[in-house]
Design brief:
two-stranded antiparallel ribbon, Endonuclease, Chain A, alpha+beta, 4-stranded mixed sheet, 121 residues
Length: 121
């Protein structure tokens, strides 16, 4: 990615998203910002949503929750619904630095669950 492109992407990010982007960079985890994903909402209507980050090498999305006052319950339910099953980790950056450990553990859990599915084939 060119430096000019990186700067334009960072300019579109909230402070919380920038923190997550920097953390992913530190951990050498490649990401795409706001890569679209197709879902069906609670009324089975087709939607294209753009979670904050997609980790292409891991097949996981991150949704950055930068403030306590906003509820992500509806999004979580839609992503997890059996029609979608989109692997999304909700990152609560306002929880000091514990969010970093949470992200790494959630990635590991997702891959452990995937491994169990594959081993049962």
């Amino acid at each position: 990615m060119l430096e000019e492109e990186r700067n334009s992407i960072y300019e579109d990010m909230t402070l919380a998203e920038k923190r997550v982007a920097d953390f992913l960079k530190e951990r050498h985890i490649r990401w795409n910002f706001e890569q679209p994903v197709y879902v069906r909402d609670n009324k089975k209507r087709p939607r294209v949503w753009t979670p904050d980050f997609f980790l292409p090498e891991l097949g996981i999305y991150l949704e950055v929750c930068g403030a306590k006052r906003r509820s992500y319950k509806f999004r979580k339910e839609v992503y997890e619904h059996e029609d979608n099953k989109v692997p999304v980790i909700f990152v609560h950056t306002y929880k000091v630095n514990r969010w970093k450990e949470f992200v790494l553990n959630a990635i590991k859990r997702l891959h452990e669950d995937r491994s169990k599915i594959v081993s049962n084939l």
